[in-house]
Amino acid sequence: MHCASCAQTIEKALKEHPGVKEANV
Question: Who contacts 17 (Cβ-Cβ below 8 Å, separation ≥6)?
Fold first, then answer.
C-alpha cells in the first residue's frame, strides 16, 4: 500500500463487508 493510513482505511472498509472476516493489505 501507499501508506499505513490508506491501508487501515481499506482494511476497515473490507471488514465492514459481509462475509469478510479478515483483510490484510
Answer: none
